[in-house]
Amino acid sequence: MGDGWNRARRSLSRAARATADAGRGTFRAGRTAVRTTARAGGAAAKGTARAGRGVRGATRRLTHAQGADRTGLGRLIELTAAHSAGDAMVTVALAGTLFFGLPVDQARGQVALYLLITMVPFAVLAPFVGPVLDRFRSGRRSIMAGTLLARGLLCWAMAAAIGPADGLTLFPAALAVLVLSKAYNVSRAATMPSVLPADIGLVTANARVALFALVSAGVAAPVAAGLTAWAGAEWVLRGTMVIFIAAGVGAVRLPRHVDAPDLEEIEEGGATRPRWRTLLNIGPVVTEAVRANAAIRVLSGFLVLFLLFLVKDGNLRGSGLPEEALIAILAGAAGAGGLLGAAVASWVRGRPPQVIVLVALGLATATAAVSAIFFSLWAAVGIALVAGFAQEIGKLALDAVVQREIGEEVRSSTFGVVEALLQIAWVAGGLAGLLFSLWSGRSAGPVGLGVVAAALVAALAWILIRRRRRLRARAGAVFAGPSPSPAGPSPSPAGPKPFTDVYRARTEDVRADGPGARPEPHRESYPESHSDGPRPGGTKPLTNPHG
Predict the structure, then answer these.
(1) For the residues of 491-533, what is the DSSP string, one character each?
(2) Per-residue model confidence as pLDDT tens digits over 110-147
(3) Is 272 in a helix, a strand, or coil?
(4) pLDDT tens sequence across 369-412
(5) What whole-number distance in Å separates Cα of residue 113 and Cα of residue 315?
(6) Which of 509, 74, 391, 121 is nearest to 253 (CA)?
């Protein structure tokens, strides 16, 4: 029995040693695996950091090229890119709440109500936002920072309202975010001449800003969609709050010459010039560009809702693709068109921006007519692509026209009115698209596009006729020359001068930018046939001391 006990004890001892050895081997293997994983994770993190630094460096080189680092244009581009990314994330986070979760018939009424509500703030607030921005030109950095920080706080409020479906908080906050976004765009557009380098034209600078804004929005939108599906819309809005607050801090770091001095608007006789008279007399070139852009916006708003409800009603099918895939294809075509428009605008040099606007309208009109005749899925994709292209390049050219033709004293007011008019035109087109989407059957597409194409033809013909008459009248006046008077030169007619003459013939405006500041060159009125390149005599409509 003693031998058996000894053998059993030795067996147990061997088993214990084997178990200990196995445990030590497992520990060593686990420790090695942990070290290997840590090394691999560290290498991956370092590689990601290097890739991030490389992308950031490449982006910085692009945004700060051609003197944009000295004037502040590079920082403004980066700030606008963050602004666009935040707006895209807010749109994606609220899309399911406001539209996609509803039945088709209920969605029509909800969208129509939303369109009307979004039009009200622009129609009511636009006449007041612009004058406020003009009156406090010395605080443009603070205004842009305020719009970004306020949107961050509103995103936090909307995140708290999504869970309990608090419509009284969600809808007003969404409208406030929209209005503040437009206020930022107005302030940024009015600031552009202050940060314009000497080697870059207005159309090119606006296109560079728009290009980076579209790219950032295109990257942020799918990321926001994935985060919405994984964590919920409220967490996307909380993340957007961080982006807006960081961008607001970056807005304060813009160069000081962005803040223009607050000047009194004095006429030659010493009286204050009425602001509304200047806004109603913005000149024929700006008026023509606004009308052309309004027609393009009508087409854009029409297509967004018309094609969307055609897909949801089953009147636009192709290759057996599901509804979500068709919507994604159309949205991608519109986004690609906008990106292409910004890229083409950045390459256009020496072309008058008002001609670019008319070419964009003509291209959109021709494409709409062809799509109405040969309507299909690919025709819808084509018109979405061209409409996005025309809207983007037309708006960039319009911004250049306003920045070139309108004096700094009321430039923000003019941009505010222009943004309101374009928003109203987009809403009108969207309501028309909702109306024509009620047309039943496969003929809904050709009928709707045919009507909007006819409207665009009429608008283009009207604009071209008025332009021809105006150019003929001006050519006749130049050819005739001033009539001689025996009593000497006749006095100027009573009443205020045209807006673009009074505000471009200002006295020198001394910049408050520290030592070495130099006075601003006199602005002059240039013929509309002049290109967007350097002005005669080497002067440009700049307000920064570094351009």
Answers:
(1) PPPSSPPPHHHHTTSPPP-B--SSTT--BPPPP----TTS-SS
(2) 677 767 766 666 665 666 777 777 777 677 888 899 99
(3) strand
(4) 999 999 888 899 999 999 999 999 999 999 999 988 887 777 88
(5) 24
(6) 74
Q: Are 286 and 108 in contact (CB under 8 A)?
A: no
Cα–Cα distance between 488 and 10 in angstroms, integer? 133
C-alpha to C-alpha distance for 321 and 229, rounded to whole angstroms: 22
Q: Which two tokens stand for residue 235?
A: 């967490």
pLDDT higher than threshold 90 for residue 492: no
Of 116, 132, 107, 165, nearest to 437 by C-alpha is 107
pTM: 0.71
Phi, psi of 325 (to 5 degrees): -65, -40
Return the number of other C-beta atoms located less than 10 Å from residue 402's C-beta: 25
pLDDT at position 535 is 38
Place of tokens 């969605």: 107
What's the CA gap between 242 and 37, in Å, rounded? 32
Q: First-to-last CA distance in the chain? A: 105
- 113/507 Cα distance (integer angstroms): 49
Residue type, 60: R
Distance CA 274, CA 495 (A): 12
Which of 461, 442, 164, 436 lies closest to 309, judged by CA? Answer: 436
Question: Which is higher by pLDDT, 450 or 410?
Answer: 450
At 279-326, the pLDDT tens digits run: 556 778 899 999 999 999 999 999 988 888 888 777 776 657 777 788
Rounded Cα distance, 124 and 235, in Å: 32
CA proximity to 411, closest of 142, 133, 124, 195: 133
How many whole angstroms separate alpha carbon 25 and alpha carbon 147?
61
CA-to-CA distance for 303 and 434, rounded, in angstroms?
10
How many CB atoms neighbour CB 389 within 10 A?
Answer: 27
For the chain, counts of helices (H) and of strands (E) = 16, 0
Q: Is 441 left (phi over 0), alpha (psi -120 to 50) or beta?
A: left
